[in-house]
Write a structure and sequence with these properties.
Order of helices and strands: EHEEHEE
Number of helices: 2
Number of strands: 5
Strand order of the largest sheet: 4-1-3-2-5
Radius of gyration: 12 Å
Oligomer: single chain
Largest sheet: 5 strands, mixed
Structural class: alpha+beta
Length: 94
């Protein structure tokens, strides 16, 4: 895949990722990378992330998701299916 090709990331992030600003960190981080998509808290305590953009930016975002913001503890990042279209920007959703 070429660095400028559009790529997608659809993952579920598990660990201590709710109540630590993870969604807002993801919005800021993804927006800074020029990505579009969504992030939302799940009832099981995980966070679901869907993003699209340049392949290099997606790879950087994936790497950063394994770290999360200060105060978070990421135990696992696993792929999930995308069930809806992505917005033109990156935002937290319910």
């Amino acid at each position: 895949m070429q660095p400028n090709e559009t790529s997608h990331l659809d993952v579920l992030v598990s660990g201590r990722v709710q109540g630590v600003g993870f969604r807002w960190w993801a919005v800021r981080t993804a927006s800074a990378l020029g990505l579009r998509g969504t992030v939302r808290n799940c009832p099981d305590g995980s966070v679901e992330v869907h993003a699209a953009g340049a392949a290099a930016a997606i790879q950087t975002f994936r790497t950063l998701l394994h770290e999360g913001p200060r105060g978070a503890r990421v135990d696992r990042v696993r792929s999930v299916a995308l069930e809806t279209d992505l917005p033109a920007d990156f935002r937290a959703v319910r």
